[in-house]
Amino acid sequence: MWLLILRNLRHRRNAFASAFIAMAVAAAVVSACAALAATGARAAVPPHRLSGAPVVVLGDQSFVPPGADRDDPVWLPEKVRLPASVADTLRGVRGVATVIEDLAFPAELAGAAATGHDWAGAGLVPYTLTSGAAPTGSGQIVLDAGLAARGGLAPGGQAQVEVHGVTERYTVTGLATSHSGRPAARPAIFFSAADARRLAGHPGTADAFAVLPAPGVRVADLERRIAAALRGSRAVTLTGEERGLAEFPRGRERAGDLAVVAAAIGAMTLLAMTPVVAGVVGSMAVRRRPELLAMRAMGVPRARVRLMMLGEIAVLSAAATLAGSLAGPHLAYWLFERMAAVGAVPAQLVFDPAPLALGAAALSCLAGGLIGAYIPAHRAGRARRSEDAARRWSPMAKVCLAGAGALSVVVALLVRAPHAGVAGLAVAVLALAGALTLGRLTGVIGRALAGPVRALSARTGDLALLNLRGGRAGRASLPIMLATCLATTNIFLQAGETDAATRAFDEHLRADAVMETATGGIAPAALARVANLPGVSAAGLVTSTAYLAGDSGRSEAGRPAHGVTNPSGLTAFPVSAGSPAELGAHGVALGEEEARRAGAALGDTITVWLGDGTPVRVRVVALLALEPGAEFLLLPAALLAPHTTATLPARVLIRGGPGVDARRAAEESGLHPAGTADSAEHLLRGWVDYLITAVIMVFTAIAVAAAQGSAAARRGREFGVHRAGGATRAQVMRMLGVEALLVAAIGVVLGTVGVVPVLIPYSVVVSGLPLPSGSAWFYLAVVVSGTVSTLVATLYHAWCTGGREGWLRGRRPGRG
To answer: Quick one: CA dihedral 343, 345, 349, 350, positive or negative?
Structure first.
């Protein structure tokens, strides 16, 4: 049996090429996803600035939202800082030699982004002075040597440093160089202790504490003592590579997102590979039907025929998996570097493809190939369905159509903005219904396109239309239909969800422009400078996340929370009761639906957990008529800002009076238009969407090539008859080109029809417009790639078959 399997593989190289390519591509993608998932699961973020401290103490970023499972905490979006008094507690622990308060804040010098620190922490990196002296008084700084060279500065020179929108002049007292062995995320600027505390903007608290042990004290023993001393507080101790989380507090959360996303892409790739392998093996089974029937006539049991076909796929899967698994880690590293470059994953995260994860990925690909080949192998030797059977409406197709219709109605009639999962499920069910009724739908669309085809090419068009009858066109158009459905749904639903989240608060602003500083956060002095511009109204905008008891639908993600320093004239909220003007120091305005879920009425006092996990008691002063699913909380800016990472308003809302260009005035005062770049989560989700789409299009091309190659191999005699009847080679190839375009058009039309009943209602509910969010160029790219794949596969296989069987060279029927 194995000898026969190896001979079949050797003599049917072209037939098995599509299956080999599909499985090799799948193995490479799945192996790459396994490497990325292992990297995210390990979440190794080595320290840089704190590498010289064996033990680091920082605030606990984990938080259990109200009403959530205590065993499933979330990672807080804002930095949790510790009071300065923790340093006294640490100094009282036996075995502690030195405690250094760590401060870090964004700064800018000579157009380059940097990070400001207290000079006391310079020895932790370690940084060493290469020239000059340490800063001892106010107005003095030490620069990273590379940053100084970029700005052309030397000891004794004057430097303009911007922090939170305020630019001050400092004297450069020295230059320092890092010896940590790891590249810094940003170059450092070291200030005196007084200046660092003033510029950090959160007096009385510290970002973290670096603890140095006394000589002879073991790090593990010191860690246990510190943990015991801080028991009951919101402090945690870190050692080893975990110390990097003190510098990059969101590194673990974003690494976890990478692990989940990579695992999802790998699973989807395996699911996409299975039907492609099944289609390729099915096409080969149809082509080999005379051979298989001959084996059955000679007395070969059906089980041995199936075993032979499964053995062929097993050998093929092993070779393809080996090839793909070797390329997978290299692909993963390339993707990791690209995502780190754009900020989708932490740049400090260590790429670590675990061998165990790669082995599991290889075994999954082997299993996927065998599963995909089992059904067509099981049916080997059976009669194919007749054309009439393929055109009948099966009970499953009727059920799918009914279910898709019901889901479409649900999407269209939901009062709240529907979740993308409901719309995606409706599209998937519609696609399944289309696949089950493809024979009937192909004939309908073929008749609809008959007029334009005959107008463009009468003779070859008629032949192409006749050749569309039967299941051949359906088998080729199926992958194009599925690709159009899945790819457009994947991109446009996500774009609609992102736009809806962005508009939820922005549509209530009445500002001419939204500005920001180069370093993030705007100091009161900078905000006052803008507000005092002639004819300009300005207000600081604080954006964070809050958690509210009773909000079961958003307990883990929380609700957006906003604060405006001077909302008069710059905001217009749809108020149904109360007034946001009464926020005062401890008020809150929230949506009616949100208040109902929390059991709160106007005038009630409720507890809100802010973005750093701090609970505050606030009074409900206003109820807002917000769209369900797009609620947010409006809090006093002075209450919200200290509990954010920046501790300051992140952006500035500006509005100009008659004849005043507010945006230009703000730019002249040192502000910049707020960037449109998405958050890290949105960047990562964008990479996911495009990677999934790329995987879909690759498998579409493979599936189309397999279907068209099998069809061309079976139609050699038909093409030879055309040549014998007087048709030229150009006419035959032109007829095949028209067929390919018709197949692609049928797939695109069916795929578009499958998404339109869902995308349009979804867009109307989310944005009020019938057109879905997202670029039309993406849809065109999907259509063009599917069409080109079909055209190239059809003509290539026909040319190869014609050259081998002779009908391209002469006018004689090809060999059957």
So the answer is: negative
